[in-house]
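Here is one such protein, fold included:

. . .
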Amino acid sequence: MKNSSKRLLVAFLAICMVGSAFTGCKKDDNSSSEADSSNVSSQPADNSTDSSSAGSDESQDFYDQPSYSGDTVKLQFYIDNQNPFGDWRKEFIKDKTGVELEIVVADSEKTNAMLSAGNLPDIGNYAVSGDLSQAIKAGYLVDMSDKLDKLPNVVKNAPNAIQYAMDEKSDGTGKLYGIPRSVGLADIYAVDTTTYAMNIRWDIYREAGFPEVTSFDTMLDALKKMQDVHPTAEDGTKMYAFELSPESDKATNSNPWSAAFRLYGMSGFQDVRGFLVYDIQNDELKPILDEDSQFMNAVRWFWKANQLGLISPESKTQKNGDVSSKLLAGYTLTATPGSYYRGYNTDERINAEEPIGIYPISFEGMCPTVPGESLTGDQSWMYSISEATKDVDACLRVIDLFYNEDACLTLYNSPKGELWDIVDGEVVATDDYTDFYNNSTYTLKNGEVLETGKFFFAFGLHTDWEHTVYGKTMRQSEWPEATELMTAKNGLIDLWAEHNPGYSVPSERYRAENTLVFRPAALSFTRNYDDDIAITAAAVGEQIITYAWNMIYASTEEELNSLYNELVDKCNQLGIEECVKWGQEMWADAEALAEKYSQ
């Protein structure tokens, strides 16, 4: 079945390639392959059957094409994001596809109820932990494998994602029931790596006299000095280096105790389901309960931090939202992986006479560990079409739009002509984007207000997909104009540069010292626990979560070691070795799949 599905995809790719020879381009001679990208479809503009938003006259730019002229169709779109989708996005999609979307916000309980009842919205993700089998077996989803001619942008920009979904996400049928979103990822770390680093309050680091940091252990010593000189925030709230939370702890996650990710994400490691941790730089997979594993290093590091009084006593009970609120209120000395600090670094703070803000610090062992490229997209979230929909073609038009490079420039940013525009054949940020960057809000022409961090959604192409004609990423926060805004007037970066001679921004140092680590492609091909081992894994994971928290709060090192030995004994009794063996085999399979779909 896999071979037949691959032949099918190859045939459709050939059709699309032939079609591209007859659909012209507006760009230079080297961009002839861009025809399908600048037209939602390469099919003739017959709105009774056309899968696109408009005709494909070779002289037409995507944004100059007429609006879809067929009847308007109302469809439900089941999405996982809590941010407002925005009427401006709905209007753009309606203009290009003739589809008026009703947004239905997803959650796991709602998904399970829908799958039980067989009542699925027209378009959405109906995978349970990345697995579509339940919906496929029940006959709830439309097979798109015989409709690829109506998905030209998907075929062109996500062929590996299609093939992977047919091979591995079709319940063994070889058909196409879901298309992974967020395909592709560029190396876009021109200035820094945002959350993926050891980020500290540089104003307080300066106040402490810039204590030398040469390792993660001496980092804790420096943080203690920072806390000593700056024990409270402006409103009197006690300062801590670390605000943790158990909210993301889950026994069957690849990383049951979520706090470990904070060290993994700045030291070159990746958690792997099966109670394993992968040393990316040294290509070494190790059980997390090995005494010298990075998991146990994380436990001991946080234990040392707690011994120094650097961990908030509320860490074991608070929510993730509490952690974020404290960070933005200025109550923490650090922002480690998983904590997003940009909202704290306001223009007023970073350009104060004595700059205030959070920024990375480099030392031996600090290796920002960032997402790598995924040619097969995010397999945990796939666009599927409900068998109950009244208009499959309309659903296909919407999905295909999400893989159109030109469309994504709008979907990720704003309507063309507001925060961005095309000038003399180049995509550029406008003056309004400068205002948006400086003020964190922008009022669209239709009256809607965009706020930094509150209008993001994921679509078919990854935010960092680089447009093949314009050379810009889909999301303009990574454009050179944004980089210039970030660095042109930034006292915090200037302060960082003073203490990192020879480098103007952190990414320069990371690249020079070869400390920027990309997560392995195999990560995209890992899978959930098999049914025959899931119960064992859940029991082991619960013990690991409980003991990890108890270990970091241990009164003495002897107590920590005693708890560790207890944990190992309990997990051995529960059958952790079986889970580890499963994980090792699963990772080997994932690496093989990564090799296969990276060709």
